[in-house]
Amino acid sequence: MRKLFLGILTLLLLVSCGKRQDSEEELAIFKYNEAAGILTLDPIYAKDLAHIWVCNQAFNSLVAFDEQKNLVPMIAKSWDISEDGLVYTFHLRNDVQFHKDECFKEAGLDCFVPRDDAKRQSEVEAPEPVEGPTLNTRFVTAEDVIYSFNRVVDKRLNSPGMWIFSSVKHEGDQYAFTALDDSTFQIELSQPFPPFLGILSMTYASVVPHEAVEHYGDDFRSHPVGTGPFHFQYWKEGVKLVFRKNPNYFERDAQGERLPYIDAVSVSFLIDKQVAFLEFIKGKFDFMSGIDARYKDELLTYDGQLRQKYVDKIELITEPYLNTEYFSFFIDPNDSLGPNRSRAMRQAVNFCIDREKMLRYLRNGIGEAGTGGMIPVGLPGHNSTIGYGYDLKRAQRLVAENHLEGYLLQLSTVADYADIGKFVQSQMEQIGLQCKMEVMPPATMRSMKANGSLPFFRSSWVADYPDAENYLSTFTTPNFAPSGPNYTHYSNPDFDRLYEKAMRCNDLQERARCYTELDSLMMQDAPVVVLFYDEVLRFVNKRVKDLGSNPTNLLDLRRVRIEE
Hints:
A hairpin with a 2-residue loop joins strand 8 and strand 9. The chain is of the alpha+beta class and 564 residues long. Strands 15, 16, 17, 18, 19, 20 and 21 form a 7-stranded mixed beta sheet that branches. It has 15 helices and 23 strands. The radius of gyration is 26 Å and the shape is globular.
């Protein structure tokens, strides 16, 4: 009798809510592996790509960047910026709803939606429906934006994204976030900061409902409620994470069809990348980003092309990535070499590295040689000629003229970059410098470089937002680590003054010229060795259509289709 009741109930659900209850085999599920693991689904802690990818499925910010790096509306349908560049006024869409959830006690947009029985839940993507409570939702208002942004700057929550509002006017803990009415939100800055609008596209700035945070408390990390294209369904930590299609998502395609197209997203957490690679080859995963040295030659030819035996099953997608890979020097004012000899040593290291050879033999040609400055290919301000090319004789002359023969540098790196470290080590020995390499765990390295304990260390900077300021700010004096991202402790008053000038410039072309000048000035002092500008590298199962790519390597599944 109970089975008959559940059968009738399920039929009623299909009619009343329009929610299709497919079996796992019938669902269009996008599956991928995340070897790095996930610690939280709260967007204010989404500090790396692994967490950004999962949070972006469940949340939206006011604005976003498209694949061409154009800023486009999201929860905000439009915005105005005052002539002095200090006041940003956002006009919100009126059709953005939060995911249906039990945290909404009093909302008019209710629909009976079955809840998953946690005791019966296993590792499947689409568990059978069982009885559950009525779930409500509500529309997003300007007060939700204020609440969400105040969570980011709340010192008690210790969000790593607090810096995104550092330019916002505030007195103590009170920030200039204002709701003019339900659909109008305003921010006032303490001084003009042209990249600010782009910063608001970051996952940290996602909009969340206060009801969910208050209802779930600390468990909001494992029960996210947002406005995104997919809603949370299930997370067995270290094993499986599942999102289901949000039937009320506000975006539609050009033909008026509601996004997203697929039914679910399933994330696995296999730690061993080689095992995950084999599962991808067997078709168990739909997507793989980047490539590990252990299987790069299996997939790619030496010139970076997909090997012929995989052409029928896999699509290779590449494009310039807003990621600069480099080695950093810690600029110690008490260095025994003195400022001039120390600078000559850093320049000699830059000149002695054959970056083209490094890319050819160690990365199968993936990436572009770092002969420019810190600004990567694809961003206004990039110039491929302001850095260092391979000039062995010039490097040897710098060493000889400054009596640097036999000088020992301690290079610190992580296991994934040990091969590049060894290559740089051998290149330095050609010009009479010694280099001792130490491989350490990433967490140890992060801690030691923050407190200035590493003289020469592996670094990487992926753009948080597509503006060159993101790279150049890491060399300003006020940003000295550990309170800021200037791990080199590079300090140049001329650089700082020009940086401030660029931040007061609203003309994009003029600001790009300032960026190039800044990059060139910094590279003359050589606090870093730019190795290469990376590429987004995506391997996609051919059943997946329209995944595409973007310069910041965000995982956007709104328009993906899956064909069997």
